């Protein structure tokens, strides 16, 4: 089945996840600049964890939607390298919405305290060195995601304003 636009559920998941990812990258960066003793540190860290955990089920829903719902074809004017880069970027972005929260969850230690005093137990215990490695993975994925989100936005704007095709309109 050929469709002109992405289904509504994909468009809304895309918007929500995009805003949350941008917020989380900015918040994570900001929290990393604070001293542990800073009055806002604990609250902002819990906010980061809470939103990060919320991204996980949204990412699962997005993957299910992308794999089960019809999607419009890529613009026929795309060059082969553009098609490959678009598919790789989309696959990566779908993947990290799951991978970053999972790494964050497992690097947290014995239990994850989210907003309020709600505690989520960690089902697998890892050593401090493995948790440190998971932190590095979490951070590396976040920076790579920031770069790819920037590329993704730039590509959408290029399609809309320079190529004047309907790529961006399919998601609006």
- Judged by helices, strands and strand pairing, the structural class is mainly alpha
- Cα-atom radius of gyration: 18 Å
Major sheet summary line: 2 strands, antiparallel
Mean pLDDT: 92
Number of H- or I-type helical stretches: 4
Q: How many distinct beta strands?
A: 2
The fraction of residues in strands falls at under 5%
Task: Calculate the terminal CA-CA distance, rounded to whole Å.
Answer: 20 Å
> How many domains, in number, for the residues?
1
Shape: elongated
Q: Can you tell me the residue ranges where pLDDT is under 50 for at least 5 consecutive residues?
A: none
The percent range for helix content is 55-70%
Order of helices and strands: HHHEEH
Strand order of the largest sheet: 1-2
Structure, explained:
The protein has 172 residues and is mainly alpha-helical. The chain has one domain. Helix content is 69%, strand content 3%. It contains 4 helices and 2 strands. The protein has a two-stranded antiparallel sheet with strand order 1-2. α1 runs antiparallel to α2 and α2 packs across α3. The protein is elongated, with a radius of gyration of 18 Å. It starts with 7 loop residues before the first helix and ends in a 9-residue tail after the last helix.
Key words describing this protein structure:
mainly alpha, two-stranded antiparallel sheet, 69% helix, 172 residues, 2 strands
How would you summarize this macromolecular structure in one to three sentences?
This protein is mainly α.
Topology:
Elements: H1 8-33, H2 41-68, H3 80-107, E1 111-113, E2 119-121, H4 128-163
Antiparallel strand pairs: 1-2
């Amino acid at each position: 089945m050929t469709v002109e636009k992405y289904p509504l559920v994909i468009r809304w998941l895309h918007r929500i996840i995009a805003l949350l990812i941008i917020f989380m990258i900015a918040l994570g960066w900001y929290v990393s600049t604070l001293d542990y003793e800073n009055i806002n540190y604990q609250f902002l860290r819990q906010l980061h964890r809470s939103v990060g955990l919320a991204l996980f089920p949204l990412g699962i829903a997005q993957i299910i939607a992308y794999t089960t719902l019809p999607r419009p074809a890529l613009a026929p004017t795309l060059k082969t390298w553009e098609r490959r880069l678009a598919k790789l970027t989309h696959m990566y972005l779908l993947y990290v919405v799951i991978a970053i929260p999972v790494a964050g969850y497992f690097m947290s230690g014995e239990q994850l305290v989210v907003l309020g005093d709600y505690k989520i137990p960690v089902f697998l215990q890892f050593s401090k060195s493995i948790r440190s490695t998971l932190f590095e993975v979490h951070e590396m994925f976040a920076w790579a995601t920031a770069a790819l989100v920037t590329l993704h936005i730039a590509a959408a704007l290029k399609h809309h304003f320079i190529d004047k095709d309907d790529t961006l309109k399919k998601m609006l």
